[in-house]
Amino acid sequence: MSVTQNVITLKDEADLRKVLEKNTTVAALYFYADWAHQCKNIGEVIDELGQKYPQTPFFKIEAENFPDISEAFEISAVPTVIFVKGNKALDRVDGVNAARIAQLASKYSGASAGSAAAGDSAIRASQATLSAEVKQDLNIRLKELINRAPVMVFIKGTPSQPRCGFSKQVINILNDHSVQYGYFDILTDEEVRQGLKEYSEWPTYPQLYIKGELIGGLDIIKEMIEGGEFDNSIPDSEKLNNKA
């Protein structure tokens, strides 16, 4: 698919500033990250919408490369699409929701009812395809995250600053038992936060994985400690007191 001139991969913050300062048109800001698999499909949606609405500027913004812009628009996860006029945010879509992005693009691009209706079936068809592709890509990413370290914990916040009491208790347990572990802050990525619940069939956080296998949450960990099973479940390579 060819990309039109109104779909702009941002290289210089000044290019975005020029459009926003005009304050005469609605622009779509698509925040993405190259490492996020779920962004690929939304990027293709943006290209398609750019062709459909040539009068609307669509900016592709790599969130980590433009921290000031990301902070200004309160970007905490990708993909995120924000429709703006001037410096005012009119609407936003957090996460993978191609149908909603297309709906807002139609709304703010001043498309006629007829042209919008004509595209409805195409949008529904593309959304169905996207949903299947996105789910597959997300599952691949979740598997990679789960296997990032032999002991992997998914928590709210970070080990130094847990954002919930349950996460804090799990981190304290791992530290008290001298376990070396990797972690992922689920508050930084809504797709992971929701997707992992379905992937693991475990509805709450924190979640602890050992060698790619789900152990469970805080209650299960406590039961394993009481039964003397927890220390035995940790690979020797991940026990800090076994390291020279």
UniProtKB/TrEMBL annotation:
Q: Which InterPro entries match?
A: Glutaredoxin (IPR002109), GRX_PICOT-like (IPR033658), Monothiol_GRX-rel (IPR004480), Thioredoxin-like_sf (IPR036249), Thioredoxin_domain (IPR013766)
Q: Which residues form a coiled coil?
A: none
For this protein, the record's PROSITE patterns field holds: GLUTAREDOXIN_2, THIOREDOXIN_2
| Protein origin, superkingdom | Eukaryota
Listed A to Z, the keywords are: Iron, Iron-sulfur, Metal-binding
Query: Which parts of the chain span the membrane according to its record?
Result: none
List the Gene Ontology MF annotations in alphabetical order. disulfide oxidoreductase activity; iron-sulfur cluster binding; metal ion binding
User: Which Gene Ontology terms of cellular component type are present?
Assistant: cytosol; nucleus
The Gene Ontology biological process terms listed for this entry are: intracellular iron ion homeostasis
Q: Locate the Thioredoxin domain: which residues?
A: 1-128
Q: Which SUPFAM superfamilies match?
A: Thioredoxin-like
Cite the Pfam families for this sequence: Glutaredoxin, Thioredoxin
Query: Briefly, what is this protein's role?
Result: Monothiol glutaredoxin involved in the biogenesis of iron-sulfur clusters. Binds one iron-sulfur cluster per dimer. The iron-sulfur cluster is bound between subunits, and is complexed by a bound glutathione and a cysteine residue from each subunit.
Q: Which family does it belong to?
A: Belongs to the glutaredoxin family. Monothiol subfamily.
- What is the protein name for this chain? Glutaredoxin
The gene that this protein is the product of is GRX3
